[in-house]
Structures are given as structure tokens and as C-alpha cells.
Amino acid sequence: MHDAPGEPTIRNDDEQDVQDATSVSRATADAGGAAEAAVPRPEARLEKAVRAAEQALIEFEIALETFRVEVENFSRLHHQRLGPMYARLDELDAMIAEARAARTGDPADVRRAEEARALVQPMPGVEELFHDWLDSEGLSPEAAAMLTDQPVRPPKRVRPSDEARKLYRELARKAHPDLAQDDKERARREEFITRVNAAYGRGDEPLLRELTEEWAAGPAPAEHRRGESEELYARLEWLSQRKELLTLVAKELEESAIGAMLRMAPDDPDRLLEEIAEQLLAEVSERESQLAQLAG
Predict the structure, then answer these.
(1) Contact, 199 vs 211, CB < 8 A?
(2) I want to staple 158 with a disulfide (CB 3.0 to 4.6 A). Which of 71, 108, 264, 269 is the partner?
(3) What is the arithmetic mean of pLDDT over 176-186?
(4) Closest alpha carbon to 250 in 263, 237, 269
(5) What angle do CA 58, 64, 66 make, to 5 degrees?
(6) In the chain, what percentage of residues exceed pLDDT 70?
(7) CA-CA-CA-CA torsion for 90, 92, 94, 95, nearest 10 degrees?
(8) Whole-angstrom distance between the N-terminal and C-terminal Cα of the chain?
């Protein structure tokens, strides 16, 4: 059969070529569309950086709050448990200086005795400094029991339990104010995390569990609204400034007297208190022997 005049002649091979070309064209178009779909928005990389910075800051704040609680508890128990021993050492030093001055009559010894006595004179608010260890009559029964090796009610742990730490970290990661996208949400999170921090500071596991349930039952956080590049850059700048501020706070904690002591035994701060108490008791015994020799 002859082809009709004016119509293009298409052989079988030509038909196959056209079909192949069409398939390639379609595949190219599909690949192009997929490539276009795979190209991220200009802000996507910036948003990813913001999310990463937020999580890094939250982890840093969790570590900082954990250390702050341990420093605060260690400081409280240090004063509560060891304060009477320090007071006893000061009193013995004053008594030794007075006994030496009485024996020698040397004006320099007399002056040192007066200075030592001045250090142990009662001061307003001293009961608050040593919590319940001092009363109007001097050492409380618990303090006296400590100094005479008699049984005494042990103080609470320096560090919250592992379960309390786990609950706190989970809550902090979920409810941290730095994840808020507006002032109202930030205020809600700040109020909630304040209660979380207080419960953690007391090592209150039951309350931390209740707070976990409360947060889970609360209003779902609003979806993040895609911000413009300027907003994301401003967010990164705020996160950077807050990290710098928290770094200074962490440095102050670590370089404080209590913080330095706590870092000596980061894995077992309670044992560190026991070791210091044993050392102080030995010093008290040595001072008492020295005083007995001077008085004898």
C-alpha cells in the first residue's frame, strides 16, 4: 500500500525512535520535576540550623540546671552537716590561743587570743546559717550527736535520684521555654518549667511524674510558622546570646568554692561529704588533745 500524498512516511524503525524519544522526554520531564521538588526552600537550611541550635541550648541548660541543683544541695548539706564541726574547730582554736596566752603572758599571744575569740562571737542570724544545727543553748542535739559519733538522722541526698533526673530531663526537653514561638506560649512554658525545676531541686519523683502527665494532657503546642529569613537569623542571634550568658553562669558555678568541691567527686558527692566529715572529726580530736596538753 502506498502512502497518501502529503503524509509523512513513518517506518517501524521511525516509530520506535519516536516512542523512545517520547519515553526519554517524559522521563526527563519527570526527573526534572523530581529535581525541582527535591530542591529545598532557601530558608530550609536556616530553619534546620535554628532547630539544632535550640536543641543544643536546651541540652546545655539541662546540664547547667542539674549542676546548679547539685551545688545548691551540696552547699545546704555542707552547712547543715559540717557547720557544727567548723564552729567547734573555731572554738577550740580560740580556747587554745587563750590557754597559750594565759601561760606565756606574751602581748602577741594575747592579741592572737583576742582575735581568735572574736571569730567565734555570736552573730545575728547564725541560726539561719547553720539551719537547725544551732539553737539558743548552742549546739543542737543532732549536732552534738554528730560530734560524739552517736547515731543521727542522715541528711537528704546531695543529688536527686536517677529516676528524678530522667523525669526532669524529659520534661525540660519537651516544655522548655526556648521552644515557644510566641510570648503567650513562652509565659505558659516558663510557669510550668519553674514548677519542674522546684520539684527537681527537692528530688520529688511523684510530683515530677504528675507534671509529666499534666504536660502530656495540656494544649498541644502550636505548629511552627515558617518564618522569613530575617526572623530565623534573629532567632539564631538570640540563641547565641543566651548561650553566652549561660556559659558565664556555668563558669561562676564551677569556680565557686562549693562548685569546686563538688567537681572533686562528680559521681558521688554524698561520699565527699562523708570524707570531709571524717577529716574534720580528726581535726577536732587533734585540737582537743592539744588543748588538754596546754591545760595540763
Answers:
(1) yes
(2) 269
(3) 84
(4) 263
(5) 105
(6) 70
(7) 160
(8) 142
- β-partners of residue 134 are 139
Place of cell 536543641: 55
| Residue count (the chain) | 296
**The three grid cell numbers given for residue 179, joined into one nine-digit string:** 521552644
Cβ contacts of residue 83 below 8 Å, gap of 6+?
129, 130, 131, 133, 134, 143
DSSP string, 237-255: HHHHHHHHHHHHHHHHHHH
113-162 residue pLDDT tens: 899 888 886 655 444 444 455 444 455 555 555 555 555 455 567 778 88
Q: How far is CA 242 from CA 32, 61, 62, 195, 262, in A?
A: 43, 10, 14, 21, 25
Long-range contacts of 274-283 (CB under 8 A, 24+ apart): 276/78, 276/82, 277/81, 277/82, 277/85, 277/146, 280/82, 280/85, 280/86, 280/89, 281/85, 281/147, 281/149, 283/89
In angstroms, the CA 203 to CA 120 distance is 35
135 forms bridges with which residues in the sheet?
138
Q: Which residue is associated with the grid cell 510558622? A: 225
